[in-house]
Amino acid sequence: MKKVFPWLLLAAACWGGYSYYKNRSSQSQVQASEEPQEEEAKPDVQDGPIQPNTIVSPLETFMEKATSLHKTFAPTPLRKPNPSDHIAPSPVGTSTAVVHKTFAVTSSAKFSFQVPPHAASPQLRGSYRSFAQQSGAQLSDESADVDLLLMNDQQYADFLHGGTPDVVYSVDSSHDQDVSFGLPATMSQPAQYYLVFRNSASRAAKKVVEADFRVDF
Predict the structure, then answer these.
(1) Cα 159 from Cα 165, distance rounded (Å)
(2) Alpha-carbon gap, residue 97 to 79, rounded angstroms
(3) Distance between alpha carbon 97 and the CA centroid of its chain, in Å?
(4) Which of 150, 152, 168, 99 is nearest to 127 (CA)?
(5) Three-class DSSP category at 209
(6) Could you state, in order of their start, the residue ranges of all structural domains in the chain?
(7) Burial (CB count within 10 angstroms: exposed 0-12, middle 13-18, buried 19+), residue 108
(8) Which residues have a Cβ under 8 Å from the Cβ of 170 and sit 6 or more positions away?
(9) Distances from the Cα of 23 to the Cα of 11, 28, 66, 114, angstroms
(10) How far apart are CA 168 and CA 165, in angstroms?
(11) pLDDT band with cut points at 50, 70 and 90 for residue 48
């Protein structure tokens, strides 16, 4: 009996320790379950009306980029234009009438025409026939001869002042003549010419001329 008693005390002590540990564990779980959970974080909400989202069109985006580029790159200063920069349509393949009529020549008769810019190979073409009145008859012979002169601006000015100018082209006195003459090419500026029919002093006082001239470009 004395040997059994110590073992009973040891068993009682172990049972008491086990019961105490179990009770403490149960109380800890209950306290953990009763603790209030932290509230979930709520997003901050600003007071005032909600602003709608702004929609930017592709055109507005393009204009903003263009404006930004314009501010970044300064425009290049314009240079003084050169006459060669002005490109005009070529008149090649066209034609302009100079004279197509019958007219009287007492001293002289002139017809002006202009060759436009960029004419590569202008050509004066035509013919004339002249007549003289004698004894009531209209004759086309040497008595009806007239001179044909082709002049530029300066040459015609000298001619008006009574001088004997240099001419671009001339035909000796004739009463029946065909003409085909190549004029200088023009660049960026037109060229002015004068076709003059002149009555020689030794001839009759008045002549009648039938003329048909044009310029081909």
Answers:
(1) 6
(2) 40
(3) 32
(4) 99
(5) strand
(6) 98-192+204-216
(7) middle
(8) 147, 148, 149, 150
(9) 19, 9, 80, 127
(10) 10
(11) low
φ, ψ dihedrals at 33, nearest 5°: -70, -25
Residues 6+ apart with CB under 8 A from 69: none
The dihedral formed by the CA atoms of 8, 11, 12 and 13, expressed in degrees to the nearest 10: 120
For residue 89, which of 118, 110, 62 has the smallest C-alpha distance? 118
pLDDT digits (tens, 9 = 90+) for 131-158: 987 766 678 888 899 999 999 999 999 9
Token reading at 101: 């009529």
* Each residue's pLDDT tens digit, 99-142: 999 999 999 999 999 999 999 999 999 999 999 877 666 788 88
How far are the Cα atoms of 65, 66, 68, 76 from residue 73, in angstroms, in the given order? Answer: 12, 11, 9, 9
pLDDT tens string 170-208: 998 999 999 999 999 999 999 999 999 999 765 557 899
Beta bridge partners of 126: 179, 213
Per-residue confidence band for 87, with pLDDT thresholds at 50, 70 and 90: very low
Phi first, then psi: what are they for 167, rounded to 5°? -125, 160
Residues present in the chain in total:
217
Cβ contacts of 146 within 8 Å, gap of 6 or more:
105, 128, 130, 173, 174, 175, 197, 198, 199, 200, 203, 207, 209
Map tokens 């509230």 to a residue.
39
User: Does residue 44 sit in helix, strand or coil?
Assistant: coil
